[in-house]
Every structure is written in structure tokens, then in C-alpha cells.
Amino acid sequence: MELLRSYLSRVRIPEPTNRIYKHECCVSFDTPKSEGGLFVDMNYFLAFGKDYVGWNYEKTGNPVYLHIKETRKPISEDRPSKKPTLLAIGIEGGFDNSEPEYEVSYEIVILPNYVTLPFPSVELPEKVRLAVDAVIMAAGAERKEQVASWTADKKLVSKHAMNLKQLDNGVIVPPSGWKCEKCNKTENLWLNLTDGSILCGRSNWDGSGGNNHAINHYNVTGYPLAVKLGTITADLEASDVYSYDEDESVVDPLLAQHLLHFGIDFSSLQKTEMTTAERELDQNTNFDWNRIQESGQEVEALFGPGYTGLVNLGNSCYLAATMQVVFSTRGFYTRYYLDQNLKMAFDNAPADPTVDLNMQLAKLAHGLLSGKYSIPATKEDDAVDTTNSTSTAKQEGIPPRMFKSIIAASHPEFSTMRQQDALEFFLHFIDQVERINAGNPNFDPSRSFKFGIEERLQCPSGRVAYNKRHDYILSLSIPLYKATNKKELEDFQKLRAEKDAEGKELSADEIVRPRVPLKDCLDCFSAPEEVHDFYSTALDARTTAMKTAGLTSFPDYLVLHMRKFVMEEGWVPKKLDVYIDVPDTIDISNMRSKGLQPGEELLPEGGDGGVKLVANEDIVTQLVSMGFNYLHCQKAAINTSNAGVEAAMNWLLSHMNDPDIDDPIPKEAKSAPQYSDIDPLKVDTLVSFGFEEELSLKALLASGGDIEKATEWIFNPPSGTSHMETSPSSSAAAVDAVLPDGDGRYRLIGLVSHIGTSTHCGHYVAHIRKDGRWVIFNDDKVGVSKNPPIDMGYLYFFERIDN
């Protein structure tokens, strides 16, 4: 007892604001139910398993711990089983949750010699008794975060919704074919509910995402509400509405009325009866559920290293399926398991390891790959599950709570308990991993997914422009007209017409889906495409250009995203019922881009040398409609060589306070600005960021000398401009040189499949090739896959075949 008294200064009574961890170890998945129980640091209130508490003592010197141990109570054999009368769990009349009961014991442990003292005990110092009582009575931080996640999606009604001003400007929004009005972005688009503008969302730190045009539009106009295109369905409550003024996602009770103003009518979607197509979709969904989860088949359960399931935290299957495939890749397996043990990660973590992504990735990797937690559950824990499989053994799996909490901290959607898009989560996860490894890119496992894409644009003058960007996924359209089973499809259409005439329904076995080879989807990516309203600096006019695309590098792992979700006429969302014939190996060598070829001539940077520029009236008119001064808009267009609205707006925002901004334009219009006009100090700043001098000059010229906008321009150049120079040692080529590269031959190693009518509902399952066989990872269920649904994937993961 005297030993404990000597350490009272290292014991704290927790405040209401303290986060107290007592349900799960911070560096492993040990719990109070584990063999050694859990040790709670009575100074920092962090919990550690038996094998790890010594590390915390070495790091912090905190010697006093509350040891929590939960022991299963015996279950009475004659406990009656009542038939449920209510659709509820764990209440009178509901389903028995069949959760075993545990007896909890506590004791005080003093390190380093593990001296134990009983609790409760009147002999303990009062400070210790008060501190331990507070820890026991407090809600654990793990539970608090889970509750916060469930309540995070309770949005408030926007203060602007009921009296939103809408302009009578004749804007009618089509159901598809959208693109940002100020750039060529076709994803992450937002419809402003005041004037009907369609603009791209926020830009991410690495240049991905949008170009901030939606929020810039709000800053200029003050129009507060926008709805994200692609989230609008018949269930308007699920639509993503954002208030820029309130800076959060909100509810718009009058959304249907506000959308109708722009020609989006949902009244026709309110049906009381299922159509034939809907019945088929319902049957297909049931079929998908059985096929993807391999229901009704005897699945051989697997245990051991690399075969650990993930507990579903509530609509977290998108996370589980994605992370299982990610940690089957060499880069992540090596970085967070082989090359970094838990002790190393803990020693490098801050005082609170629960908020360190590197620590939580190492924890997740060791949990999934070590095999420590991949053991058969005890018989009492086994729940009868006749709906999904007849497996005779199961595992408890590990709950990725701390990982989900930290990876979702910077993303408002993933911090909720709603279902999410596995593709969006994968990209967000890769972005976060790249951030924490920014200082040491050689150790960044996200690089194994990174590759370069080059777009070639040719205008009618014969001159070309090259644009380059980096990506982590290759998103592929599905050309249904390339189906290989057209005869079967024709017969199916006849059968469906006959059944419909007879008032009969089709059975699931009679439904035929198109089969499209993956090669045709890849060919569509590289196929020539018309780009309308392309501004040609050679012609000094807007015209139609031809665009082709290719890859500048082949990553270690190629992720293919199948665009199965489309929007039909009338704003009806649809999931394509299609099979993709995916071979075990693919060769994309023909997709490598060739860059500037001998004899090709690049589009000029501005107008021809001796020709004086005149403001493009289309650019001026668009800027004026945003509220800018006409003269200022003319100057912006001239000073940016009529490059487009985006470049002109950037110039305007940077030069609005110029002393000569209101001076009239000389009768002989000003020629395009030259490199000599750029501040050398700004060039040096960009060069210090790692960009080449020529590229830095070009970016500053296009962005009106603004360093921040120049950096964004480098990562996201407007369509029709190019990073390429006539010199073969271009900056883009230098950047690509540090990316992983090799042959274009790949082998399929995994896929994430989706069941449901939308990426934001339904269920995700992963299938991974391990040890020469396919394995199904369905949350905490892991087993041998007898019939993997290779042709039903949403995301495909390919590993490059090294010679």
C-alpha cells in the first residue's frame, strides 16, 4: 500500500472531458475478455493488453493501472427460448440477442513488478478510489465515438431552405451529361439551387477532387444552397444538400420544389406498384445477394495469419471489404506488418496513439495478418446463421473502431454510420496514407497504386496539346453494345414480352444479363472522344477537338472501377445489370501513351506572336453574370490570353486592387503577358516545392502570378493547356519517372463486389486470391470460395506480373 501511496502524484481523477479507453487496447485488439484482460493507465486513461502495458510504462513512466478482466458466466441449460412477437432485439417479446453474460473483476496493478492490490478496498487511498470509480462509471471513449457516429448523420434544416431565392433564368438541368461550367470536371458536381449553375466541388491538397468552383461561385454571388448531382434519387431525404453559408450538410424540406424549378420532376417517381423492370431488379438483387455471398453453399471456414475477419460496426462493410484487399498487397503488407512491429509504431506515436494513423494502421495490419485473433469462436458464441451459409465454425473477428474513427476524422461522410461507396473510401484512404508518408515517399505504400494518365487533344488545325495527371484508379465505362451474348439477349427480350402479355413474372433463372468482355471496357478508355467547345489557341476560336488517353506508367497494382451506376432519362437512377468477363491475366501494354511525337506541333501558348489579343466576349459575359465589372472582365480575359473563365477569374481575384484596374484599355489591345513579367521570387518559391523552372513560369503566367493558384494549375491544368514542352525532359516526364512502372501484364488478385441498387446502400463483399485459392471475406466470415463472382465485381485489383 505504501508503494501505491508513493505514486499518488501519477494518479489522476478523470474530468468529464477526458477520453477514457477501457474496452479495447490502443495498440492491439485485446479486450477485457482477452486472456490477460486490459490495463487502464490511471494517468492518461489509455488501455493496453497484457503484452503491451509494459511498453506504455517504459514510454511514460506511469506505474499505476486499473486491471479489468471479464470472465464468462456459465449459461443455464434449461433457459427457455421464447418465440419472438416483436421486431426488436434484447427486449421483452423481441428476439433473444443470445449474448453471453460476463462477470467483471477489477484490481490495481503497479508496474514494473506487477504488484496487485484488490479493488474495491477501503484500505486504498481516497484519491485512487475516486479515480477508479470515475473510470468504471464513465462511458468508454470507444462507445462515445460509436454513439457519435450514429448521431452524426442527423442533419439540421437549413435556415435558407424555406425562403430560398430562385432566379427565373430559364435553366433546365438535363438528367445526364453534366460537367462543370468553368472547367471540364464531370465528377463531384454541385447544382446551385438559386441559379442552376453546375460547378465542381472542393479541391484536395494534392490537386485531386474539384477546382473549388462551387464555393468560389458562392463567394461571388452569395447563393447558399447546392445539391450534389448523382445523389438525387426518388428518396430526396438521401440527397446531399450543402449550405456554404452554414458550412455543413443540411436538410432542405422543399428540395422537390427547388429542383422542379430547374426541370427536375420527381412526382412521376412516386409509384405505388412495382413495374416489370422493378420486379426484375428485385429478383436480380436477391440473385446477387446469394451469388456474391455464396449463400446456401457449405463454406469451409479458414483461420490463421491473413484470414481474420472484420466485425461490421454498422454499415461498415465498405471499409472491411476494401481493407482486406489493400492489406493483401505487398506494399501495405510490408510497410505496416513486416517492416514495422507494434512496438516500433507505438514508440513513434504521439502521447495518444489512438489519434495516430500510422499506429492504427500497424494495429489493423497485425490484427488482420498475424493470425492472433483468427481462431474459432467458442461454442457458446456461435450463432445459428441459416441465411448466408451452413458453415460449422466461425470467428469473432476484430472491430476496426479506432481505425475507422481516425480515417473518418477528416471526412464528414465516413464518420457517420451510413453505408458509403467503397470507391470513395478507397480514394480517401489512399489520400490519407500519402499524407502521413509525404516526408518519406520511398516508404509510402500508396505509391504502388499510383500511375500517370496523359490526354492528347488535337484541334482541326492539326496541332496538339497534352495534359497529364495522376490517379489511383482507372474508371471504366461499360459498352453494353459490345455484349457477346446478343442472341441470348434477343431471346430473353421475346420471352419477357410473352410473359408480360400473359401477366406472368420471370423467374430468376430465366433472366439474362449482357456479358461484356473487360477488354472492351479498357478499349473504351483509350478510344477517341470528341471534346466540344474546346478553345484552340491556334484558331483563336472554340471548336471540336479529338481526345485520346493513355497511361504514362503502369503501377504495381492496377485498380479498375466499373461504372455500373448510371442516370436515365427522367432522373431515374439505374444499376446496370451486366456481367463483366474478366480473365485471370490482362495485358494493357497497348495503353501506354507515347507523348509528343516527331512532326507533331503543340498548340501555341496564346495568340500568334504579332497578333494583339482582344477580349473573348463569351468569357467576359460569363464573368459579368457573376457580378464583376465589365471593364475588369475584359482586362482579365486579355491578360490570361482568353484561356477560359477559370483563368480569367483567378486573374480578377488577384488584381482587383491594382491601382490601374479602372484605367481604360488602350485602343491597341495589350498583348499576352510574357515570362519576363513574372516575379522571380515567386518562381524560386515554386522551384523550392520541387517543380521545374519552366513549369513554374508557365503556371504563374496562367494564374496571374498567384503562387497558390499556380500550384493548383500544375496539378489540374485547364483542358486545352499542357504541361508538355517540346523538350523531351519535361517536368511531367520527370514526375512520372519516380512512379512505379513496368510491363503491362497483370494478374487478378482480388475484387470488391456490391449488392444493392446504390453504392450508398446494400452490402460489399471481398474475394481475394490467397495461397492459390479464392477466399471470401464477408465481414467477420472468412472461408474458401467455391464459386467466386468474378464477373460481378465493382472494383477489380490486379497485380503487375514482374519478369
Automatic annotation (TrEMBL):
Task: Give the Pfam families listed for this entry.
Answer: UBA, UCH, zf-UBP, zf-UBP_var
Q: Which SUPFAM superfamilies match?
A: Cysteine proteinases (SSF54001), RING/U-box (SSF57850), UBA-like (SSF46934)
Please state every residue range assigned to the domain named USP: 308-801
The family database entries (Gene3D superfamilies) matched by this protein are listed as: Cysteine proteinases, DNA helicase RuvA subunit, C-terminal domain, Zinc/RING finger domain, C3HC4 (zinc finger)
Amino-acid positions noted as binding Zn(2+) in the UniProt annotation, renumbered to this chain: C180, C183, C200, H213
- Ranges for the UBP-type domain? 156-266
Gene Ontology process terms (BP) = cell communication; protein deubiquitination; proteolysis; signaling
Q: What is its EC number?
A: 3.4.19.12
- Family named by the database record: Belongs to the peptidase C19 family.
- Protein name (database record): Ubiquitin carboxyl-terminal hydrolase
Q: Which organism is it from?
A: Forsythia ovata
